[in-house]
Each structure stands twice: as structure tokens, then as C-alpha cells.
Design a protein that fits this description.
single chain; alpha/beta; 7-stranded mixed β-sheet; 15% strand
Length: 248
């Protein structure tokens, strides 16, 4: 942990400073979005390496722009998915207030949603629709909150509305984490279920020598013009790819 913490801080600081320095010339040649994706992916891969996370994937990530949904276990989900392909993420509004990371998340184009305010979902849905129309892959965690991996919570349908209305392809992935023998189980040290602050959880996570992240991508995209039916189909697909989670 004594080595990981300064390495993570140096990586975030160094990549952010590089990004800020390169943004003006990138904007002049219309490459700002490309630069943002490269820096974000570099951060994700470097962070995973420092934290001892090995990513194993079954299947291939979606080939083109789409909505990508997954079960939600930890803030690590963002790094694990971004390490595989460039995405725009939908995140809880609380992240905006996080020191340093909140500002970076805003500048990366993250779509924030306050799930305690029902009317905020309509605004977030408009931002998701704009990102889909712009050709982005948008990652949504329909459970709303991170879980401990022992169950998949019901998928909420409100933010699936843009994909249902546009007839956009919806890809899905099932995420899980494992720790080596002798280490605390992933449910206790990797999954973040609001039992600790972000800082306290990150320090606990850094004590783990190695983490294996598994991504199981769905073979085919799902389309449905009914958002509630779409949510059920996606939830069933994710459940079926998580062997330790009972099917609904």
C-alpha cells in the first residue's frame, strides 16, 4: 500500500497535466475527443496495473457505438471497462463532489444523475441520448448502486428510455472480481457498498496484492422499444452469466 498510493496519485496527476497541456493544440485540429479517450484509457490501464488488477474478458466488447449496461460492484468497474474500450459513463451525482476525481470526471463528459430526485432522470436521459447520437458508447449501471456481487439488483428502466426510443443497440456485460487465497474475499474489499467512505475503501483495496476482474460480454446486442421490457431482458442476460447469482 505504501507504494501503490503515491503511484496512483502520480499517475492521475501526470496524465491530467499532460491532457491539459495537449488540449489546446488538439482542439485546433478537431482531435479533442480522441485525446480525451486516449488519456482516459491510459489512466484506466495504468491504475489497473498499479493496483494489481488483471482483467480477463470472455467475448468481445461491442464493435460500434451503443449503450452498454453491466452489473455494478465498485468504482473499479469504470477502470476495468475503460481499459478495454473508450466509453462515456453514467455516474451517481455524488462523484462530482469528490476531490480531484470529481473535476476530472466532469471534464471527461461523464453523465451525472441524482437518483434520489426522480425529475433528474429526464435530464440525464437527454444527455445519454445526445452522447448516443454523437456516436459514443455509453456505459450505464442500471442497478443504480454498487452491490457486493452476491445478487443482481433489479435493473431500473428510466435511463434506458433513449435506447428504446431510438432503437439503439444495447450491449451488456457481466462483471465479477476474485481475490487470491489468503486475501479477504472480493465482496469485502473490492465491492463498495456504502459501508465506508471512498478514501477508506480505497486504502483497504490497496492492501490486496492481486485482483482478478472478469468481464463476460454478451454475444448479441438487444433492442426493444419498451424500456421496461428492455430492462428485464438485460437483467436476465446478466444474471445468466454470473454463476454464483441465482436467476430471477
Amino acid at each position: 500500500m505504501a507504494v501503490k498510493a503515491p503511484l496512483v496519485a502520480a499517475t492521475v496527476g501526470g496524465l491530467y497535466a499532460t491532457w491539459r497541456a495537449l488540449r489546446p493544440p488538439a482542439r485546433l485540429v478537431g482531435a479533442d475527443a480522441r485525446l480525451r479517450g486516449l488519456m482516459f484509457t491510459a489512466w484506466a490501464r495504468a491504475s489497473a496495473r498499479i493496483l494489481g488488477i488483471r482483467v480477463r474478458a470472455e467475448g468481445a466488447p461491442p464493435a460500434g457505438p451503443c449503450l452498454l449496461v453491466a452489473n455494478h460492484l465498485s468504482y473499479l468497474d469504470i477502470a476495468v471497462l475503460q481499459a478495454r474500450h473508450d466509453c462515456t459513463f453514467v455516474s451517481m451525482a455524488d462523484v462530482q463532489a469528490w476531490p480531484v476525481m470529481g473535476r476530472i470526471a466532469r471534464e471527461l463528459g461523464t453523465v451525472f444523475v441524482d437518483r434520489e430526485r426522480r425529475q433528474d432522470a429526464a435530464r440525464a436521459a437527454r444527455e445519454i441520448e445526445a452522447a448516443l447520437r454523437a456516436g459514443r458508447t455509453v456505459v450505464l449501471f442500471p442497478e443504480g448502486r454498487a452491490g457486493d456481487g452476491r445478487e443482481v439488483r433489479p435493473f431500473r428502466s428510466a435511463l434506458l428510455d433513449p435506447a428504446a426510443r431510438l432503437g439503439a443497440p444495447v450491449a451488456w456485460a457481466a462483471l465479477r472480481y476474485e481475490t487470491p487465497p489468503g486475501e479477504p474475499p472480493a465482496a469485502d474489499v473490492v465491492c463498495w457498498t456504502d459501508d465506508a467512505s471512498f478514501g477508506a475503501h480505497l486504502l483497504r483495496l490497496m492492501r490486496v496484492r492481486r485482483i482478478e476482474a472478469r468481464i463476460a460480454y454478451g454475444g448479441e446486442v438487444i433492442r426493444d422499444d419498451d424500456r421496461k421490457r428492455l430492462a428485464r431482458r438485460l437483467e436476465d442476460a446478466v444474471r445468466a452469466r454470473l454463476p454464483s447469482v441465482p436467476t430471477g
